[in-house]
Amino acid sequence: MVNIFALSSLVPAALQMAVAPGPRHGYVSYPPSRQALCRDVPVPGCGDVKYEPQSVEARKGSFKCNGGGERFHELNEEHLWVDYFTVVHPDHAPLNFTWTLTAPHATSTWEYFILTEHNTKLISFDYGGVTPGYTVIHHVPLRGYTGRQTILARWNIADTAAAFYACVDVDIIPPTHKECLD
């Protein structure tokens, strides 16, 4: 016989688990970030991020591909990624960056930087504490940049000191003069 009292005590616990916020995670899936490549392509030596591409979380403000956290130091090792640049043809238009969020969370800003000596900010998107959906697309301008560039994408969480990080290695091929005329 089913114990109705035991069953009734499980219902509130199950409801609480269903509505309680889960872990806050996300990564750039397109163009493929280093952690997306590690998950989808056999990048030798890329480490455990292949199992958790959405978990590159650290304090806000870092310019390191792993956010300066204790985990996933392989994301900072440039020699691992020299053969994995994605060729892009921006054609004077912004490049679309797609974030895949496994657990959206209230967001203050999304920031994009070209990693250089001075870490040049490309663009910032202010979300004002709004919780985004599971897919977020940003149009990031690359005008004036060519060749191999590493772009740091940073998702700043609104109600914690944490941010999520993703580095995307791109080889920006400028349009030819003829293409500019078309």
From TrEMBL:
A UniProt-annotated Pfam family: LPMO_10
Gene3D superfamilies linked: chitin-binding protein cbp21 (2.70.50.50)
Keywords on record: Monooxygenase, Oxidoreductase, Signal
Domain of life: Eukaryota
Keyword presence, Signal: yes
Keyword RNA-binding among record annotations: no
Chitin-binding type-4 domain sequence ranges: 25-170
Endpoints of the signal sequence: 1-16
An example Gene Ontology molecular-function term: monooxygenase activity
Protein name: Lytic polysaccharide monooxygenase
